[in-house]
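Schema walkthrough. Field components (list of strings):
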Amino acid sequence: MIDVKDLTENPDKYRASQRARGADEALVDSIIAADVRRRGSLTEYETLRAQQNAFGKKVAAAKGEEKQALLAEVKDLAQKVKAAQASAEEAQGEMDQLMRVVPNLIVEGIPAGGEDDYTVVKTVGTPRDFAAEGFEPRDHLEIGELLGAIDIERGAKVSGSRFYFLRGVGARLEIALLQMAMDQAVQNGFIPMITPTLVRPETMQGTGFDVAHDAEIYRLAEDDLYLVGTSEVPLAGYHADEILDLAGGPIRYAGWSSCYRREAGSHGKDTRGIIRVHQFNKVEMFVYCPQEEAEAEHARLLAWEEEMLAKVELPYRVIDTAAGDLGMSAARKFDCEAWVPTQGRYRELTSTSNCTGFQARRLNIRERVLDAEGSSRGTRAVATLNGTLATTRWIVAILEHHQNADGSVNVPAALRPYLGGLEVLPVL
RNA sequence: GGAGACGUGCCAGAGCGGCCGAAUGGACUUCACUGCUAAUGAAGGGUCCGGGGAAACUUGGACCGGGGGUUCAAAUCCCCCCGUCUCCGCCA
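Field assembly_structure (string):
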């Protein structure tokens, strides 16, 4: 949810943001109009209600005939109050509906346009030249099968397409990767969390995912519960309806969870291997901080992601996502994309979003505003940010980039302690 | 799955349909007092949404788990939902 007050005061800023996203600019004016209607009908209702309250006090004090007379008089007022209340609620409802569809205000200066309009922030490392090394690289699935690490066929047998088993060194590699991510997070002051992966509709909605329309979400209709696509969802909901004390700095969580995605709109895309799957594991960073610190924190999250990528020794690039390719909640998003040799292109391994106050406003997560004397001047929304530290997909890039001619895979040095010192994943 | 109890402010905990935004403790903040701490005394606080005001502030409405209903009037009565706890059953 965006800040209505800010929108009514600076509509041009929001029009520009909508334009950059390729979204509806007129929405801004619809909101301003709806807000005027809302306030008008609210004032009307409150005035009547004040009269009724005053009457109520008189009725309570009166006795006998006098009381009966007052009751007769106030009955009519009660009807008016009811009607005014109904129209005030209706106006509020219209407002709420509009507010649900406005995406977050983007950070000024990010690239405008759609999926292909990102800018490359930097490129780190160089893709391996397999031609020069004299062998044709195998893709991650072929390697995974040689190592006995990935079993797609039985995944499909048991659960259908886009499901898989990680086995043997594959399973160990994933655990090692996630464990290394958790350790790094803890070293950086994050609180480790293992979260629920089924959440209520309010939590899903509050985080910015539309339970009713989002085709990506698995639903358990019977129970009105929803499978999360990322632990960002439960970690955002964690502090819902709370007033946080951020005096001691940002509150940082590292969530370890399975993630579930229907991949409804991606038939035929990435059907081979484990690039795009219905279920995977992830370590996610999630931060609550004051809004003015959000951009600096965003840079830190990106740096922590890059630290992980450095540990697994992968060549990658960082992109600044264009406005139109941002989710509803994000004001800015950086993706780290690792080079996947057999695809000849960079593929997303991490994604970090600055959601400014958008999620916090929906989830009612605030902090106190203090004046110079240190006494409370009310509250305001905090900022929330998230970023990936490791996921199952990383295995794709690791297997491919670190492969040898015989199909075995060299283990990056930082990962070895998590694999009992293993230096090479051997072909079976 | 069955039976029951409960859900009130930061915490504990009262609350008769109108005098209840809510007693009383504790915690907290400020002030006073004792040489400091402790103790004691006094005072003060919540959140959300409107109106007025540059602001300090002021004024109105709403909020007693959530949503409906009854009533001139609901923390209080009724219904539904959510949650917590206890007992039984079931599965581990």
